[in-house]
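Bumping with the actual sequence this time:
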Amino acid sequence: MGPRPRRRAPLAPRIQFVRTTPGRRRITVGALVLAATIGLTGCFGSSPDEGDPGEGDFADDGCTHIAVATSSEKVNMLDALAAAFKDSPEAEALDECATVRPVNVSSGDATRYLTAGGDWPNENPELWPTLWSPASTVWTERVAAAASPSLVGEPESFTRTPVVFGMPEAMARALGYPGKPISITDIEQLCADPDGWGSVGKPVWGSFKISKTNPNTSTTGLSAILMQSYEASGKTEGLTAADVAAAEDFSRVFEECVIHYGDTTGKVLTTLYDETQNGASGSGYVSAVAVEETSLLNYNQGNPDSHTVQPGEKLTPPKEKLVAVYPEGGSMWSDNPVTVLGADWVTPVQREAGEAFAAFLQTEPAQKILPQFGFRPLDESVPLGKLFTEEYGVDPAGPAVTLPRPQVDVVSAAIDQWTQIRKPSSVLEVIDISGSMDEAIGDGRSKLDGAIEGAQATLGHFRTTDEVGVWAFTTGLESGFGDGNIAVLRDVSPLAADRESLGSSLDDLHFANRQGTPLYDAISLAYDEMRARAEPGRINAIVVLSDGEDTDSSISLDSLIAKIGTAEREGGDAAPVRIFPIAYGEGADTGPLQRIAEATGGQWFDASDPAKIDLVFASVINNF
């Protein structure tokens, strides 16, 4: 007799909207297994603006429900593995049938949730995880050290992917690729050289620019800073906290090349893809991106944001592919463990089913699924398949050197060091306070309440030496600019000890006059302000939050785009000002905001669900 069904309440089908650039917006309806059918890789982005696989519920199939908290790049793959598990001997051996479903949560966020104690932060207990699969065992070790080893059980890797530097092929060839190994020291020297690409005979490419993710939330970002310390120490094993400390100057130079940070490489890769496809050279945006090999494979198939590929959907590869540079000194691997959590919400039946699924992942049928999604199997007898070839920019024999995972105290030392040496920021936040911001967002707050609270929550991210300014805009304001549209809550200056007073100033916006929406005028003035004070060696940025269409500006959108685009093309390379708009609520005019971001090499964020504005603000601020 097969596993006995277990009753559950009827639940809704799973529907997701994945934001991409115009012409690439798609609706995905539980289609992760379908992606495997057509042999293409895709996964949900990890930022709030790219959809949330944690929303929706299990289908009413009468089975034990097993949620797997996992980093975004594995959602597709785990859905395919969950489907295969249904017919496996491991599933047949259970007393009750089990349905496994991945829930998207970044490795860093899951680490914070688990170490904080208490319940999982999801209103639906069915989506509280039985299993956890972060991108690296680094995160399970941090939870074990900060909370309890029993909470993370016995993690076991089931697949892996190396961390590489993805470079436009022409740029990599200028450094000797593929015949000459390229080291992190080579990249560091390009960062330090004021001639940038000119030092290797390519002055037209300008300075050398790197994109990395925030190591507090991203495995790739964390691996990159550890690889820097390994390189500076000359070691390939046994990295210590003292080695990390000694590498500070080396890593500081490396960080100076960063264009901006972020919690996902998907946005950076999408911007690079769009610039390349639209006839501009992506070299103007970034020279190298620290990514997992699997993300590079997605990019080269024409899926830069790793969305879920639909049946019949045609992907267009980039005009210039990225090639994987496996650093000469070695690469860290994302070892992708899976473990049954020792949380009190996990029932004995769920634990048994979770253990069965974890065991299934080690079997040959499961391992054969992995390469279809750009992941390397642990079982070396399983062929890697057609993706792992030069055609897609990777070397199946790379990396030549594997850098082992350091001890927990070393990882903590590296993150603490990065917090101090990361590239300085100068950020102006520009907040729409027009009349439509009074609309309710369904949780007892207005849109303006959410915007204020989101902005206040970001203040703790900045160091005292980072520059922060805040403006608000609507018509009919008293303004030092003479146009009656801008209220200056704080001039752009070092934050110092002003966190509390700035938080209070943001609260004052509750009582401000609120009328029209001079969006383009506000951005134009903010851009003038930041261009006048922009300096090389720091991230110069404007964060714009608006919930509607421009109604009262004197400058047109086309004129604004021409202004900010020209400034970036003519002399803007040394100290670019990038704009990061947040489209707030369903009424936000997303098309113009996206054009504004793209004109400056920034990124736009979708906060169409205004109740999640605090999460979106956190995603934006992770860039700085």
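The tokens above came from a reply further down the thread. The longest strand covers residues 159-168.
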